[in-house]
Amino acid sequence: MAFSNSTPAACITCLSSSNRFALPSSPIKSLKFPLFWPWQRVKVGPLTVSPMGFGTWAWGNQLLWGYKQSMDSELEQVFNLAVENGINLFDTADSYGTGRLNGQSEKLLGKFIREFRGEKRIEDEIVIATKFAAYPWRLTPGQFVQACRASRDRMQIEQIGIGQLHWSTANYAPPQELALWGGLVAMYEQGLVKAVGVSNYGPKQLVKIYDYLKARGVPLCSAQVQFSLLSKGEVQMEIKNICDSLGIRLISYSPLGLGMLTGKYTPSRLPSGPRGLLFKQILPGLEPLLVSLREIAEKRGKTVPQVAINWCISKGTIPIPGVKSVKQAQENLGALGWRLSSNELLQLDCAAQQSPRRMIQNIFQTK
Q1: In which element (H, E) is residue 90 found?
Q2: pLDDT tens profile 64-77
Q3: 266 Cβ neighbours under 8 A, 6+ residues apart
Q4: Are 96 and 129 in contact (CB under 8 A)?
Q5: How far apart are CA 114 and CA 321, in angstroms?
């Protein structure tokens, strides 16, 4: 079942009025229906993916997200729940997990795919988008290709869905940048990846790599940047406009502002670790935006995070909220199957403009 943007709102509202669809009784008790009917798909280059993916930064990151290997069992439940409910895009990186946990996120994804007990067709449709770090010792196209092969080996998959350059080195090592671009071309030509993308690229550098890849016969399918109600300044919107004009799909990471847009934190109740320091600076000015999010969530019968994620979807991006618990996964899934109205989008945009401070942009994002 598919809907266009012209589908009457009443129809969509009717379909999404409940987290579960009313299904006729059936004698076949073994049938397992999804919590949210995965009727929508979007194109990312040659790939067809769900309108929201799941990010796996926390699957191996101890410093920021407190990862422990004892969490692996629940993370597998998260993965299975996501796939059973139509999510087929999972974003990771070769730098997610360091030291003895090197590549942990990729290893877990590969393991969960192999152990998934659903239909083989569904398993084959899973798209892994991984990012290759621009480490200073990766100086040649061949070394970047080797990084791609290492990621593929960790996941034990034949072909990676989207191979992404994690960040640009244009600001501090321009010669390395060209070598990394050559690496993207080589991994695509060798069939190691189905498509290529970039992450943390600003407007000017995004156009440059698009032109470079196009001249080499390689389409740039995606650009991943921090994009949310807390990160929608002029530069981010310019990136979005460039993506729209060039046919590049924008993947929005940190759609919940590292958790600030969940409504779970206040200036007197902050998360521990480095996030707490950032939240202390920004949260005091977020009340207008959080009030608007709560108003719309209450009216819609949704939660604040679901509204914030849906804002990203309604803006034409693919959000990849991070998940590390079944509860988070279930909540994120509630962002699917409906769309904010134009008036609701305007209300949220205006409220976001009133916030005195925005999310700090990734230091690796170029101009």
Answers
A1: strand 89-93
A2: 667 788 888 999 99
A3: 283
A4: no
A5: 23
| Burial zone of 135 (CB within 10 Å; 0-12 exposed, 13-18 middle, 19+ buried) | middle
Distance in angstroms (rounded) separating the CA atoms of residues 163 and 131: 6
Q: How far is the C-alpha of 145 from the C-alpha of 251, rounded, in Å? A: 23
Q: Provide the sign of the torsion angle of the four alpha carbons 363, 357, 340, 309, taken in this order.
A: positive
- What's the CA gap between 64 and 276, in Å, rounded? 10
Q: Which two tokens stand for residue 55?
A: 């990010």
Q: Can you give the pLDDT at residue 168?
A: 94
Q: How far apart are CA 79 and CA 76, in angstroms?
A: 5
Q: Which residues of 209-240 are buried (b: 16+ CB within 10 A; e: fewer)?
A: bbebbeeeebebbbbbbbbbbbbbeeebeebb
Helices vs strands, H then E, count in the chain: 14, 10
HEC sequence for 34-72: CCCCCCCCEEECCEEECCCCEECCCCCCHHHHCCCHHHH
Q: Which residue has the tokens 């509860």?
A: 327
Q: For the segment 264-311, what is each residue's pLDDT rounded down to a tens digit?
A: 877 767 767 777 777 777 777 788 899 999 999 999 999 999 999 999
Q: pTM of the prediction?
A: 0.85
3 state SS for 116-162: CCCCHHHHHCCEEEEEECCCCCCCCHHHHHHHHHHHHHHHCCCCEEE
CA 37 to each of CA 87, 110, 261, 268, 351: distance values in angstroms, whole numbers, following the listed order: 11, 25, 25, 39, 31
**Mind telling me the catalytic residues?**
96
What are 101's strand-pairing partners? none
Amino acid at 76: E
Question: d(Cα 9, Cα 97) in Å, to the nearest integer?
Answer: 43
| b/e map 45-55, b = 16+ CB within 10 Å | bebebbbbbbb
The whole-angstrom separation of Cα 292 and Cα 355 is 12
Task: Assign 353 a pLDDT band (cuts: 50, 70, 90).
Answer: confident
Do residues 225 and 191 touch, judged by C-beta distance below 8 A?
Answer: no
